[in-house]
Write a structure and sequence with these properties.
single chain, mainly beta, five-stranded antiparallel sheet, four-stranded antiparallel sheet, 0% helix
């Protein structure tokens, strides 16, 4: 809690859904939500992006395969798939519901295939910073205008 006190568990794996692991959490302060990857096995290959409310603890596993959420910008949830594709999909955060189909934004983002963490980040102003998976030492920075 902001004012201190004991920590509380926000979301537990839902065993009735077969969930075993919750990984790569990302707190979205402005939206009051946490994005994370939900997995039914110890492999990231079946991980799905999920969303939980900081206020209520309610969570929803979204119907998109992905191992690393990057954020929500202008109503678009951005995440990286287990194949290293950076995807964007329209989302209604309040209803925790997708409102469109995923679209690939970038390919070949460097990804740790054990943990699911992607070497990518999106700033609040829309700047995308990522490492290309085929050139381990090359870092690429791309703004929302494509430069």
């Amino acid at each position: 809690p902001d004012a201190g006190g004991e920590a509380r568990e926000l979301v537990k794996p839902d065993r009735s859904l077969g969930e075993l692991y919750l990984d790569t959490p990302l707190v979205m302060d402005d939206d009051g939500v946490v994005l994370y990857a939900s997995s039914k096995t110890n492999s990231i290959s079946d991980a799905h992006i999920a969303i939980a409310s900081l206020r209520t603890g309610e969570h929803t596993i979204l119907d998109i395969v992905g191992s690393c959420p990057l954020g929500i910008l202008d109503g678009t949830l951005m995440y990286v798939t287990t194949g290293g594709a950076l995807m964007g999909v329209p989302i209604n955060v309040r209803k925790r519901k997708l409102t469109g189909a995923p679209v690939q934004l970038v390919s070949d983002v460097s990804l740790n295939t054990t943990t699911g963490f992607a070497r990518a980040a999106i700033a609040r102003n829309g700047t995308l910073f990522y490492q290309n998976g085929t050139h381990a030492s090359q870092v690429v920075s791309e703004g929302t205008d494509g430069r």
